[in-house]
Amino acid sequence: MDVSVFGTGYVGLVQAAALADVGHRVLCVDIDELKIQQLQRAVPPIQEPGLSAMIDDNLREGRLSFSTQASDAVIHGQLIFIAVGTPPDEDGSADLRHVLGVTREIASHMQADRTLVIKSTVPVGTASQVEAVARDELDRLGKGQLAVRVVSNPEFLKEGSAVNDCIRPDRIIVGSDDEQTRAQLAELYAPFCRSRDKLIFMDNRSAELTKYAANAMLATRISLMNELANLAEQLGADIEAVRRGIGSDPRIGYHFIYPGCGFGGSCFPKDLRALLHTARASGQPLRLLQSVQEVNETQRLVPFQKLQKLYPEGLAGKSIALWGLAFKPNTDDMREAPSRCLMEALWREGATVRAFDPEAMSECRRLYGYRDDLVLCATRDDTLQDADALVICTEWKAFRVVDFALLAHKLRDRLVIDGRNLYNPQQLAAAGLRYLGIGLPQVAPQAGPQ
Ligand code: UDX
């Protein structure tokens, strides 16, 4: 099929590459000329495993192309994806300026019937709004005879496994009551449904809500686990044992019950705020989800609060090693990352941060620039040089195997605060380290060599 994609951000680009890879002819447009020029040379603006090779292959095969010309894209694609950004407004609601702007532009170029597929995460009711805006524009331009169909088709991809999530989706939500549109989308996604039918059809409001509901459910699991972890600490219980115990119940399962120093990223916090806003505005506030968000705000500060407790005389002049800047492993994304709450709190107190992350170092530099109280270290172990304590914020694989004796030797206060529960407390205690995880029992450090 001929498909166009407006917006070459995370969602649009990965979707476009995946569609081209199964044989569709895909044209992507973006207003960012530099980005398009780079994509034409197969240089993606984001790092995702498999993405660069996929773009390269499909560019060469002629199934994928990039342009800044909206008119070309409207002529090319019988199906037109809208995957432009929905940045949060000041009140947390999703700003639909780009989505509606692109809709108007598409309608202005339309010379034949078109189906618009909304991929961006948008508030409930947006598909109807998009349809109304497109209709209005078509009528205004004397093209009232043209049909415009709008389908809501939310994306569930995760950073770091976006390509895989896109080519092997768990489910494909198609929000449209129109039989012809449903058939079009079924044909488009047939190559992704070979092992089993993954299409779930529904009305577009339900499709829009499904995306938010999925993120709300997952975020709720995390915040609940984080609260239980904090309680376990008070009670002298071990949240890791509790996690294994409850995860074995198939009704609960093991996914998304890892306690830690809070969730971050570009989706969960933003989508939660948007859904809370929608709910309030509709007169049906979501009390539970409000708490999920509040718990996460405070959870991101837990490593800092632990430090504060251990240094009652204050953190001024302290040097804190930090492992992990990205909001999760396998990405350089630091949006809403717990590491940022920690660093900013430490800086306010006058401490210095010695940080390492396998991928997010330049992102950190871009965000915070050069400052005396931030030292970006070339290796994980360089952070330990003259450091008083170590805090871990991201569970990168490269942090899993550690020489605890070296940590005990290097860290002046022999203190490790682990926001991701990576280690066995007994082992750190045996090496003479004081180890504080999230919801883990405290084991008294054994006196090690001085
Ligand atoms: C998420 C959703 O998974 C995806 O379906 C949606 O489309 C976009 O938002 P992503 O933001 O890439 O994807 O991250 P994800 O892997 O889901 O992790 C989100 C956050 O939750 C991370 O900060 C992670 O550290 C945290 N997390 C996850 C926990 O703290 N505990 C867990 O058990 C799982």
UniProtKB/TrEMBL annotation:
Gene name in the database record: ugd
GO biological process, alphabetically ordered: polysaccharide biosynthetic process; UDP-glucuronate biosynthetic process
Positions that bind substrate: F156, L157, K158, E159, K211, F256, I257, Y258, P259, G260, G264, K328
Protein name: UDP-glucose 6-dehydrogenase
InterPro entries listed in its UniProt record: 6-PGluconate_DH-like_C_sf (IPR008927), NAD(P)-bd_dom_sf (IPR036291), UDP-Glc/GDP-Man (IPR017476), UDP-Glc/GDP-Man_DH_C (IPR014027), UDP-Glc/GDP-Man_DH_C_sf (IPR036220), UDP-Glc/GDP-Man_DH_dimer (IPR014026), UDP-Glc/GDP-Man_DH_N (IPR001732), UDPglc_DH_bac (IPR028357)
One GO MF term attached to the UniProt entry: UDP-glucose 6-dehydrogenase activity
Domain UDP-glucose/GDP-mannose dehydrogenase C-terminal: 321-425
Positions annotated as active site in the UniProt record: C267
Organism: Azotobacter chroococcum NCIMB 8003
Entry's EC annotation: 1.1.1.22
First-tier enzyme category under EC: oxidoreductase
Record's catalysed reaction(s): UDP-alpha-D-glucose + 2 NAD(+) + H2O = UDP-alpha-D-glucuronate + 2 NADH + 3 H(+)
Ligand binding (NAD(+)): D30, K35, T86, T121, E159, K270, R335
Family from the record: Belongs to the UDP-glucose/GDP-mannose dehydrogenase family.
Source superkingdom: Bacteria
Keywords noted in UniProt: NAD, Oxidoreductase
Pathway(s) annotated for this protein in UniProt: Nucleotide-sugar biosynthesis; UDP-alpha-D-glucuronate biosynthesis; UDP-alpha-D-glucuronate from UDP-alpha-D-glucose: step 1/1
